[in-house]
């Protein structure tokens, strides 16, 4: 019930479509019921009964007389039958037009609700803290945004659209059955509580199993995404059999679960039909007694009654299966709301102050960070980076360098100590204002499947002129190769920029940072894997990028940081050495050893 309530806000903008769907389905059900009641005068005429429209049916008799009374001509059965048939055809045509209109509105409702759920999930997802993405698998995230939103719409297709039609048909049929024969109608209606009681135990099991299935489907997505994105590594290590085993294991687990759930879900249909048939046979037997012995019914009325009872089985079957189908959708919706319930960065942000630049310094005061009580990453880190200085971070892999720079734009928060910007704790600053001061050039250059221009002016193409974009590209030594591309700045790059070389991708990333012109720069230096010419061009671009900024460099090649104002050497999350390049070499500590190893390695 809670999940149902959570879906209602998504329905409110589409109430006109929902109302129209209900209205046309009810109208279609009413026309359908009235059309079938005309079987009574049709059959009475066919059997030559004296009373073609039974007088005992009250308002139903009045309705039948108005619809087909003018067409019934005593002594001319064929003309009478023809008139009744034409009226039935007219009612059936009108019914189908109403149902078609209702179906159109229902389909629009389903797709728009799916769109709104998908958009809301993606919108919220982008605003979650970075830590959430570090612990979430990409395939699972994609499964929630794409597959779960698609599955959630079945709640509407089964309950808000198709079930409305079935419920309307059941309601109209019951009203007519009661009018035809209250006694037989009472017996017929025992089928509904029987069906509900019979399938109730299935529903709880189905919801749990469908939730498990959604997770297992996400695992298939995860393996597929990892293999596709890392296919070069897979092939270089000859790991195709290993990845095949991983994928088939995840696929097989999902298939086993799906078979078990389907077996359980399919039990509802046969159970419903058997119970309905038992009731129909009982009604037929009792009705036959009323025709043959008590004469409470005519033969035409009994046949009409039985046809309508049999017509009642299909919508009842659909209504009984709707909760079963809805369990899968509700399980998917629950997974969506798990994401939507995660507090966003804005909701967690306690900052109230704004800032428009760096005037003095960034200071770390006894900063510590840990993912848990037994997982410390940084411990007691203290230093000051003055405006315009280059601070280099050096240390072995896993020493905490990336974690340290992630604290500056508050991708993560310190678990102890403070990070100060001009003497103000960064947690007091509003996130958008703080991050507007920070530019990042990562070792893993991220480029999107879009034009060069859109990649350079990422997220803000309207802010920058053509000349500004070109000037940034020239400063990054990127203009020449961009101009040589087939459509120049309008060339669409491949996914992740795979059509470009490593040096070209890095120069685009530098141009992007130059265009934004941030006062604080985080540079994950990555020139070691480039050829000599590319390295020279990238290094020239980096030198232009560093000018006039406060820069934090995660240094992989120590030769590139000899002019840094301050070098911090980290080991196991602690700053074990600090100073200039010459001072640290003279100290003959860890930095000197790392420098010596790189020199020896050429």
How does this structure look, described?
The chain has 602 residues and is an alpha/beta fold. The chain has 2 domains: 2-345, ABC transporter type 1, transmembrane domain (ABC transporter transmembrane region fold), CATH 1.20.1560.10; 349-437 and 520-530 and 552-602, P-loop containing nucleotide triphosphate hydrolases (Rossmann fold, 3-Layer(aba) Sandwich), CATH 3.40.50.300. The chain is built from 24 helices and 10 strands. The strands form 2 sheets. The chain has a 6-stranded mixed beta sheet with strand order 6-7-8-3-9-10. A 4-stranded antiparallel beta sheet has the order 2-1-4-5, with no helix packed on it. The longest helix is centred in the N-terminal third of the chain and has 50 residues, at 77-126. It is elongated and about 120 Å long.
Write down the CATH topology of the largest domain.
Answer: ABC transporter transmembrane region fold
Q: Kindly provide the name of the CATH class of the largest domain.
A: Mainly Alpha
CATH architecture of the largest domain: Up-down Bundle
Strand content: 5-15%
Low-confidence stretches: none
Secondary structure tally, helices: 24
Strand order of the largest sheet: 6-7-8-3-9-10
Largest sheet: number of strands, sense, barrel closure: 6 strands, mixed
Structural class: alpha/beta
Task: Tell me the name of the CATH homologous superfamily of the largest domain.
Answer: ABC transporter type 1, transmembrane domain
* Annotation, overall tally of beta strands: 10
| Helicity range | 55-70%
User: Mean of the pLDDT scores?
Assistant: 80
**What is the total domain count?**
2
C-alpha end-to-end distance: 67 Å
Q: How would the global form be characterised? A: elongated
CA-based gyration radius: 37 Å
């Amino acid at each position: 019930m809670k999940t149902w309530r959570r879906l209602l806000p998504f329905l409110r903008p589409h109430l006109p479509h929902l109302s129209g769907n209900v209205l046309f389905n009810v109208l279609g059900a009413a026309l359908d019921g009235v059309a079938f009641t005309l079987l009574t005068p049709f059959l009475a005429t066919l059997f030559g009964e004296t009373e073609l429209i039974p007088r005992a049916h009250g308002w139903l008799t009045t309705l039948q007389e108005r619809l087909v009374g003018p067409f019934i001509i005593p002594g001319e059965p064929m003309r009478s039958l023809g008139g009744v048939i034409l009226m039935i055809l007219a009612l059936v045509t009108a019914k189908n037009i109403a149902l078609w209109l209702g179906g159109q509105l229902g389909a629009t409702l389903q797709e728009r609700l799916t769109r709104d759920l998908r958009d809301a999930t993606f919108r919220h997802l982008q605003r979650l803290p970075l830590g959430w993405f570090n612990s979430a698998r990409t395939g699972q995230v994609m499964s929630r945004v794409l597959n779960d939103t698609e599955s959630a719409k079945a709640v509407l297709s089964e309950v808000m659209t198709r079930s409305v039609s079935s419920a309307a048909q059941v309601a109209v049929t019951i009203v007519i059955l009661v009018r035809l024969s209250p006694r037989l109608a009472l017996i017929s209606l025992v089928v509904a509580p029987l069906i509900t009681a019979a399938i109730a135990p299935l529903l709880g099991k189905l919801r749990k199993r469908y939730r498990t299935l959604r997770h297992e489907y996400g695992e298939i997505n995860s393996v597929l995404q990892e293999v596709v994105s890392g296919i070069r590594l897979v092939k270089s290590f000859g790991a195709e059999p290993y990845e095949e085993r991983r994928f088939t294991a995840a696929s097989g687990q999902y298939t086993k679960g799906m078979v078990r759930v389907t077996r359980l879900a399919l039990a509802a249909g046969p159970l419903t039909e058997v119970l309905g048939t038992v009731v129909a046979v009982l009604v037929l037997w009792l009705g036959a007694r009323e025709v043959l012995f008590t004469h409470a019914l005519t033969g035409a009325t009994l046949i009409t009654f039985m046809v309508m009872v049999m017509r009642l089985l299909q919508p009842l079957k659909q209504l009984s299966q709707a909760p079963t189908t809805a369990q899968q959708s509700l399980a998917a919706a629950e997974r969506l709301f798990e994401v939507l319930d995660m507090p966003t960065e804005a909701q967690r942000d306690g900052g109230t102050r704004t800032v428009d630049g760096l005037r003095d310094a960034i200071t770390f005061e006894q900063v510590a960070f840990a993912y848990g009580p037994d997982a410390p990453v940084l411990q007691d880190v203290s230093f000051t980076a003055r405006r315009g200085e280059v601070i280099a971070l050096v240390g072995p892999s896993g020493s905490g360098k990336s974690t340290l720079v992630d604290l500056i734009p508050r991708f993560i928060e310190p678990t102890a100590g403070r990070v100060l910007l001009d003497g103000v704790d960064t947690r007091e600053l509003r996130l958008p204002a703080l991050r507007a001061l920070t530019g990042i050039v990562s070792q893993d250059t991220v480029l999107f499947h879009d034009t060069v221009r859109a990649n350079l002016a990422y997220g803000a193409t309207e802010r920058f002129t053509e000349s500004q974009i070109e000037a940034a590209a020239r400063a990054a030594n990127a203009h020449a190769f961009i101009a040589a591309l087939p459509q120049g700045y309008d060339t669409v790059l491949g996914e992740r920029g795979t059509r470009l070389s490593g040096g070209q991708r890095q120069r685009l990333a530098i141009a992007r940072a130059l265009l934004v012109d941030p006062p604080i720069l985080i540079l994950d230096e990555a020139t070691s894997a480039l050829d000599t010419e590319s390295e020279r061009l990238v290094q020239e671009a980096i030198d232009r990028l560093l000018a006039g900024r406060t820069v934090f460099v995660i240094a992989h090649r120590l030769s590139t940081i000899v002019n840094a104002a301050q070098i911090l050497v980290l080991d196991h999350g602690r700053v074990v050495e600090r100073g200039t390049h010459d001072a640290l070499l003279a100290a003959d500590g860890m930095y000197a050893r790392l420098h010596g190893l790189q020199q020896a390695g050429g």
